[in-house]
Amino acid sequence: MKLEQVGFNRYRLPRQGKMRVSGLVYASPALLEHVRGDNSLQQLAHAAQLPGVVEPVLGMPDIHEGFGLPIGGVMAVSEEGVISAGAVGMDINCGVRLLRTELSADSFDRPLLRKLMTEVEALVPTGVGKKGLHRGITARIFEEVVYQGATAVVKAGFGCPEDIERIEENGCLPGADLAEVSREAIKRGSEQLGTLGGGNHFIELQRVDKVFDPEVAERFGLFEGQLTVMIHTGSRGFGHQICTDYSKGHIPAAPRYGIELPSKGLACAPIDSAEGRSYYAAMACAVNYAFANRQIITADIRQAFVQVLGLRLEDIGLQVVYDVAHNIAKWEEHGGRRLLVHRKGATRALPPGHPANPPVYRGTGHPALVPGSMGTASYVLVGTDLAAESFFSVNHGAGRTLSRSAAERSITKEEFEASMGEILYNTRNFRDVVDEAPQAYKDIEEVVDTLVEIGLTRKIARMMPMAVIKGKD
DNA sequence: ATGTGC
């Protein structure tokens, strides 16, 4: 693909072939070879062919090839345009929540960290296909969950109302309709609420090792040396089934509206069509489910800490700093226009003062949460006014550099163990985690710096992992 | 990502 440098760390993907608009890709010189190393630019060009797409389609510095839109892609569409399940992703509202504590990380030795990991694992099922431990309650409130999101589980006793004001969209996307969700998805979803999943999903005990902006960090409740907990999970089999159902269903739907599909992965329907409205309503169910999932896991983590530490919750802390979606399509106002912004492996990052910030973060901009790999740092960022050019979006992580199978082929046990250093992890079998090895990911520092150097985002704090809980059989 | 290949 033809790519033109248009500034420091910025590249234009000019209109070529059937592209309706151009693309804009952020990459440092070192990341550029990764960007060119797979089909992600081709996939971005395909997205630029869809009806109603708004200039530009974007590639974040963590971009890599995915199903339909590349992971690390942003596609905004006007009201006359299309909605695409493949441009949201398989794991609808895969996202990250950060919890703060009142505790110094340095007072946690390895045996105590191990105890905490064991207790968290006892309360939060991890691994593919696992069923939740609160099935009695969650089956009963399942319908409320898909319509009300995190609020439904707070009402059921998981967490407190203050948590809700620190979740993107207050933990609930309007417009959900369970009638648009298949029985299969409902079955899988009602069993899996309150579970972590596998792959890149994790619960991490972290230490804030650097504060870059003390004033904003204080507003976020963060300080150097602090123990934090990060949760990365999504809508489990529920969102996966919804994505599968609609990306298949929209393949025959698209031509009925005269849409030429550039790829099956970008199957889509007009937003204002029966098929498009159905997907949006089903997607909103999964978005709300994922917010509720992270809310239940938060309550479980609080319980684990109280049990292990023998302290009162108010002395531990574990308040929500923020909760962001990484895979979502949302109606937002940009430049006076109402757009459906598809973010797939991208994080909304609003600047200080933006009216769409939650009231508690109106003055600072909300925290944008960006996890690294299991052996490297995670970041708390905020957006700047310049991020208007990316529809107020930043990267969502480090981004893969090796596919899961390539990681299994090329990374040795010794290399993996060396890269983890002193960091504790729950998986005993190297084969179970090799696809998540730090070597399979880009350098998070390079990825974040790419956007910071442009001025699209600012660093607020950096956390280093102390103990990582991953999906386990 | 995923009751992990159609």
Structure description:
The protein has helices at 29-36, 40-47, 110-123, 135-148, 150-155, 161-164, 183-192, 214-220, 236-256, 274-309, 313-316, 404-410, 413-420, 430-433, 444-454, and strands at 4-7, 10-13, 23-26, 57-64, 71-78, 82-84, 95-104, 202-211, 226-233, 268-270, 317-325, 327-334, 337-344, 346-348, 368-370, 378-383, 393-395, 424-425, 457-470. It has 473 residues and is an alpha+beta fold. The chain has one domain (4-401, 441-470): tRNA-splicing ligase RtcB (Alpha-Beta Complex). The strands form 4 sheets. Strands 7, 8, 9, 11, 15, 16, 18 and 19 form an 8-stranded mixed sheet that branches. A 7-stranded mixed sheet has the order 1-2-3-4-5-13-12, with helices on both faces. A two-stranded antiparallel sheet has the order 6-10. The radius of gyration is 21 Å and the shape is globular. The protein binds one DNA strand of 6 nucleotides through residues 67, 89-91, 94, 128-129, 188, 197-201, 234-237, 239-241, 243-244, 327, 404.
Shape: globular
The termini sit apart by 41 Å
What's the β-strand tally? 19
Largest sheet: 8 strands, mixed
Q: Could you report the average pLDDT, rounded to the nearest whole number?
A: 97
CATH fold title:
tRNA-splicing ligase RtcB
pLDDT below 50 for ≥5 consecutive residues: which ranges? none
Structural class: alpha+beta
Helix content: 25-40%
What is the rounded Rg? 21 Å
Count helical runs: 15
CATH architecture grouping: Alpha-Beta Complex
Tally of distinct domains:
1
Beta fraction of the residues?
A: 15-25%
CATH class category name? Alpha Beta
CATH superfamily: tRNA-splicing ligase RtcB
